Amino acid sequence: MTFTDTHTHLYSESFDEDQAEMIQRAIDAGVTRFFIPAIDSAYTERMYALEKAHPDAVYLMMGLHPTHVKENYEEELAHIEAQFATRDFYAVGEIGIDLYWDKSTLAIQQDAFTRQIQLAKKYKKPIVIHCREAFDEVFEILECEKGDDLFGIFHCFTGTKEQAEKAISYNMKLGIGGVATFKNGKIDQFLAEIPLEHIVLETDAPYLSPVPYRGKRNESSYLVLVAEKLATIYQKPLDEIAAITSKNADNIFFTKHA
Asked: With CB atoms 3.0 to 4.6 Å apart as the test, which of 75, 106, 133, 225 could cross-link to 99 if both were Cys?
């Protein structure tokens, strides 16, 4: 039984003291594949070093995180394009809109999001969406960009059932992590009504630890706790949750699209 963590920041400074041991704990727990989202150019070398240390387990994305869309975002987008010109990645991510921290950058966040979606289409890659307090704004752009060449993952999905169905209509899988284990997480109340074929597992480590580690540093081995919660929600054996969600990840990251 093996699991796929579709979203984990293993290069984070939070893991500087025990990165190798933390990754080994995850592998020992059955989490054998790690998809790594980018934040900005400051982390690129750390990502490459992680990939070099764990070439059989680490799969890199490239993109500009919406909270890092600043005055220099044109330079950041140029950096992303330069990286894609020199090597392959598994997705453009994480990208999107975040209005929790800073609403004043909405216009440039929208521009960066749109242009990175178009970059993903150019390279026939999935996108991995970060959305915080911005469902309407994200959906507005997805509506403009929708088509067979738009697909990916709605990372850390925390919306309503209606928003889940809308995300799925744009060829997005729902990234489900620690929030599903929270008492006030709400998504556990309707998730069973969403077919499992639309779900992938993620930790977003070092953030959003599942219960009973909520509030502490998250790590990829805790993905199993999320899977166990889904086994309860869907009333399916754990090995079936592992197999189906990993297959769904394959369909996003490894399948050739239009």
From this structure: 133
Count CB neighbours of 186 within 10 A.
15
Q: Give the whole-number percent of the chain exceeding pLDDT 90.
A: 97
Model's pTM, two decimal places?
0.97
**Two tokens, residue 27:** 């592998």
The string of pLDDT tens digits covering residues 203-212 is: 999 999 999 9
